[in-house]
């Protein structure tokens, strides 16, 4: 079992892919800058070669600095290349969008574009902050450079004549808003749980930008400017927010990302796979709901992701759909294992982990959820069938033939669900679960998993395991409470 800390080690393959992704997106950004400068055309007052050099240096500085910072900060994002790649794509998309939309007017700068997209994709708001800041600053540098090189020609697009200085300051201020808002909006969205919430925050950002624009124009006593370009400022906020709602699901699907919004959607009981589970294996479904309640509370207690814990717990036993009546919670008196050999029983029970992974992938669930199906039993033995086989064969039995062939937990969520899964079943099987007996049971379950090496590849500490135990102890009474007896034997 490894100590629980937040420092992540990268292997050469991960760093190589991260660097390659960064270079590819950087090249796209360089070409975008060159195309933008070319479209600016005759206004450019310096050698075009210098523009190329500037574009390369600017892009290398920002993209290279971003990669270096993330490596130094030991962010998980390189550990999971899918997230890093999606962030780079979102950042580069927002950068290119801002570059070319400024050909129409710099007032269309979309301060909340990157933030609205990246924050919804992010599992760590720290990473969202960094990417938003880098993209916004890079855009601002390009626009200011263009303004200098074109001797103010670009700003004539939004006005002209004696008001050019005002227009220049308006664009600079609006761009600066993009930097600040784009960087700090993750703080406003730190508790983001829905796409609607991100839309509302994006619209609030737009409202703030519009208000500042109006105040600046009024400070210059230029009502005509307010009336003429008010709609541009509004569009600069509204369009990107709407656009992001189409972009985020696409990025989630392409890169198989897990976001808070997607996890909440996966726990909707109307999802096809959950409907199947509730209909075809109601006992397993109720068990999964109870495990999900335990897992969510435990994840909160140790500072892990409660949304992922709940979603993974909902689906951890979906593999039982292949043979639902071979599992005790779905049986109504008759046990089909009584009529078959223990090795056959073991194979049927063991199969539900791999079958669960297959079903999760078939129904389009993300890897972070699907992997729990093959990790929540690890390599634990199936004691009932092992003991039965020993009785039938005079003890000449290999325990590996009666053990799960899955993967031991590789993350804290899988470890939590392994403990909660066994705990829920064991507590429910007790005739009279009291505090002392439940506590002893939980200690034995955790100690057994540690002794069997189930957490050797998992970044969960002994302290966190004890926190999980205490959390289940405090929660079990609410799930397995007694009811008041009424005359006639009825309960309520």
Topology:
Elements: H1 12-40, H2 48-72, H3 76-79, H4 81-101, H5 113-121, H6 125-149, H7 164-188, H8 195-219, H9 223-255, H10 260-266, H11 272-280, H12 282-302, H13 306-315, H14 342-362, H15 367-370, H16 372-375, H17 383-392, H18 412-429, H19 435-451, H20 462-479
Helix pairs in contact: 1-2, 1-4, 2-6, 4-5, 4-6, 5-6, 5-7, 5-8, 5-9, 6-7, 7-8, 8-9, 10-13, 11-12, 12-13, 12-18, 12-20, 13-18, 14-17, 18-19, 18-20, 19-20
Transmembrane segments: 15-38, 44-71, 106-122, 129-148, 168-189, 201-221, 227-248
Domain HD/PDEase: 280-435
Keywords: Membrane, Transmembrane, Transmembrane helix
Describe the structure concisely:
Pfam families: HD (PF01966). The protein has 20 helices and no strands.
Structure, explained:
Pfam families: HD. It comes from Candidatus Protoclostridium stercorigallinarum. Helix 4 packs antiparallel against helix 5 (113-121), helix 12 (282-302) runs antiparallel to helix 13 (306-315) and helix 12 crosses helix 18. Helices cover 68% and strands 0% of the residues. It has helices at residues 12-40, 48-72, 76-79, 81-101, 113-121, 125-149, 164-188, 195-219, 223-255, 260-266, 272-280, 282-302, 306-315, 342-362, 367-370, 372-375, 383-392, 412-429, 435-451, 462-479. It has two domains: 12-257, no CATH class; 262-489, Orthogonal Bundle (Hypothetical protein af1432). The chain has 20 helices and no strands. The chain is elongated. With 492 residues, it is mainly alpha-helical.
